[in-house]
Specification:
two-stranded antiparallel sheet, 5 helices, mainly alpha
Amino acid sequence: MNQLYKDLEQLSVPTIEDTNFQNELRRSLLKHHFTPHRSALRLRVAIACACVLAIFGFATIINPDIAYRLNQIAFGADTKGHPGNTAGKNYAGLQGTSLQNPDIAPYFPVQNFQEEKAYVIRKYTSPKNGAVMVVSEFGNKPVKMIQTGGY
């Protein structure tokens, strides 16, 4: 390895005596790689792409349905339903939550009961505050929650 370092130190690069050729070569290389027109065009393209991405970003923040539609276009229409509208479809079709459940039906006269309201129960846990269960009527707008208990 030391021999390689010694050879590199002794290596000499020849200099070109013809300064006109050297200057012409330098100018042609600069002209080819660093033209102001080419860099200005690249800058304009980069700014245009950034503006388009910023418009899409703001549009998806303001209206999330745009992101959902773009996702459907990009990955096909085989995606599952819209996340905002799936709650009613998912809960309404479950047989385990109604009297039509085959495990419960033999014990209750189904014809004597009528469904009035549906409720969603969610449980939230916190290491500091413990657990909170929120019961909300299905299909209604959320009601302001009242905190009970310690604090």
